[in-house]
Automatic annotation (TrEMBL), chain A:
Name assigned to this protein: Cytochrome c domain-containing protein
Protein origin, superkingdom: Bacteria
Occurrences of domain Cytochrome c (ranges): 99-210
Keyword line: Heme, Iron, Metal-binding, Signal
InterPro entries, sorted: Cyt_c-like_dom (IPR009056), Cyt_c-like_dom_sf (IPR036909), Thiosulf_SoxX (IPR030999), Thiosulf_SoxX_II (IPR016823)
Membrane-traversing stretches: none
SUPFAM superfamilies membership: Cytochrome c
MF-aspect GO terms: electron transfer activity; heme binding; metal ion binding
Signal sequence annotation: 1-24
From TrEMBL, chain B:
Binding, heme c 2: C177, C180, H181, C229
Protein name: SoxAX cytochrome complex subunit A
Binding-site positions, heme c 1: C68, C104
A Pfam match: SoxA-TsdA_cyt-c
Lineage: Bacteria, Pseudomonadati, Pseudomonadota, Betaproteobacteria, Rhodocyclales
Enzyme class: transferase
Compartmental location: Periplasm
Keyword Transcription regulation (UniProt): no
Similarity-based family: Belongs to the SoxA family.
Active-site residues from the entry: C229
GO biological process: sulfur oxidation
Cofactor: heme
Signal peptide, first to last residue: 1-22
Note accompanying the cofactor annotation: Binds 2 heme groups per subunit.
Length: 216, 268
């Protein structure tokens, strides 16, 4: 026990002598590794990234807590995050939550959009899709699907098309964290990655009995 | 000559395998065309070029890189890459293979850092000396065990910082490294992601770089690989050789320690 403490003390003394460390410590009160990591991370980007790109590194409360708890927050925080995220959900002006599944089919497949930087950015105005296939199986005919999320094949067939299911589907796509704090699924509506109208199309793609998600 | 013929053959087979790969499963196909390319990885051309660059007197000081210390002493390259990143007393910094080579080109050969790093990666019609040198240096660790215990306090600190960054979520898709690389057996579309938080997963992910990327028709270094993952995360672009990329490398190499390198590699 004492030996460990002595070793830590020695190590700490050694650290203080290193210039890199001293520099980081100045900006990081309490010698907190999270604060040091934040400082290193933030200063690692090219100076010519425009400011509005750099804001992408800012974290809201949910991101901060999810990072801190490595996506596994204690139950109380989990509930708190979910409640706060639920309150962010906005609906389309006309109030109709089911759009056109054919539009939704296209959006679910598009994986481009939103890439920035100087090496291989998306051209400005490039369609930003939901990229649902990156993580989910949906229509049976699309075999190039990822497995980070569960299969959504036959989603509507299994869950039905009740108002509750439609609203749940819309809400889940708008803000996934409203139901599952720190899920790997992006919050498409919250970030305005997809518009409310676009989300209604994807809802239709998931629940409409005529959509290839349910038909085949 | 021999290897040029091989490379041409390899390029031809890659075209075919690439088409098959687009449809079929991933790991099987990759295993298959690794086999096809086993004695003809196009990266070997670059490795030979890197050796030339290492040995030739160049730069304002007209010196070679043969006295460059990659961590095991001046000129000692066998197994050096497998033990990077590490702390260097002369710069008082934790450096990876790429930052160290750049350091040597500046100090030994007298190049300006901005000039050396201008072409840190290749494009069609634009070669990269750094890519060639790092491929050569990497190949000198082929068959060696990755060994980054991160015992020096500054290395340990960088490993911890890398781990923090690995779980840090941000951007318009709420991404972190962990959401793509934190679970067993997941894939995005058809690309296998691997669990980089385990020794085996990190070993598979780290041990083949620098690697010839079939889909890109070019060799990528680890900096290039990680900077592209940050692009996929929809973040702004990191500086080349930045501390957060080096910190991630320390974290991943530490996790991968004990696994055996096979480099230059060949990847999708």
């Amino acid at each position: 026990m004492t030996r460990t403490i002595a070793r830590i003390a020695l190590a700490a003394a050694g650290l203080a002598l290193l210039p890199g460390f001293a520099q980081a410590q100045k900006n990081a009160p309490n010698n907190d590794i999270t604060a040091q990591a934040e400082q290193v991370f933030r200063s690692s980007f090219r100076a010519d990234n425009p400011k509005y790109w750099m804001t992408r590194l800012d974290q809201d409360e949910a991101m901060r807590l999810c990072s801190q708890y490595r996506d596994n927050p204690p139950a109380k925080l989990r509930a708190q995050i979910e409640k706060a995220q639920m309150a962010t959900i906005r609906y389309p002006v006309e109030g109709k939550l089911i759009g056109d599944w054919k539009e939704g089919e296209k959006l679910a497949a598009v994986g481009t959009g939103g890439h920035i930087g100087f090496i291989q950015p998306d051209p400005p105005g490039r369609l930003r899709g939901g990229n649902c296939y990156a993580c989910h199986q949906l229509a049976k005919k699309e075999v190039a699907y990822g497995t980070i999320g569960p299969s959504l094949h036959h989603f509507g067939k299994l869950r039905g098309t009740s108002d509750e299911i439609v609203k749940y589907t819309y809400d889940k796509i708008y803000n996934s964290n409203a139901f599952t704090a720190c899920t790997n699924m992006p919050r498409f509506g919250l970030h305005s990655w997809l518009t409310p109208e676009q989300i209604t199309h994807i809802v239709a793609f998931l629940v409409d009995p005529e959509s290839p998600v349910n038909k085949d | 000559m021999h290897s040029i013929v091989h490379a041409a053959l390899a390029a031809a087979t890659v075209g075919l395998a690439g088409a098959a790969l687009a449809q079929g499963s991933t790991m099987d196909d990759i295993a298959k065309y690794r086999e096809m390319l086993a004695d003809g990885n196009p990266a070997e051309l670059l490795e030979a070029k890197g050796e030339d660059l290492w040995k030739k007197a160049r730069g304002p000081k007209n010196a070679s890189l043969e006295q460059c210390d990659m961590g095991l002493g001046p000129g000692k390259l066998e197994g050096a890459y497998a033990q990077l990143p590490r702390y260097f007393a002369d710069t008082k910094k934790v450096m990876d293979a790429e930052s160290r080579v750049v350091h040597c080109m500046v100090t030994l050969q007298g190049f300006k850092e901005e000039d050396v790093t201008k072409n840190w990666f290749s494009k069609p019609g634009r070669d990269s000396d750094i890519e060639a040198l790092v491929t050569y240096i990497g190949a000198k660790s082929n068959g060696e065990k990755i060994n980054v215990p991160a015992r020096h306090p500054e290395e340990a600190r960088m490993a911890k910082i890398g781990e923090q960054i690995f779980y840090r979520r941000s951007g318009p898709q709420d991404f972190s490294c962990a959401i793509c690389h934190g679970q067993e057996g997941k894939r995005i579309r058809l690309q296998e992601l691997g669990n980089l938080t385990t020794q085996a997963g990190a070993g598979t992910a780290m041990g083949n770089w620098p690697s010839y990327r079939v889909s890109q028709g070019a060799v990528w270094t680890m900096q290039r690989r990680l900077i592209d993952c940050m692009r996929q995360a929809r973040w702004p672009e990191p500086k080349y050789l930045s501390d957060s990329v080096i910190a991630l490398e320390v974290f991943l190499q530490k996790t991968a320690s004990g696994t055996v390198m096979q480099t230059p590699g060949i990847k999708r």
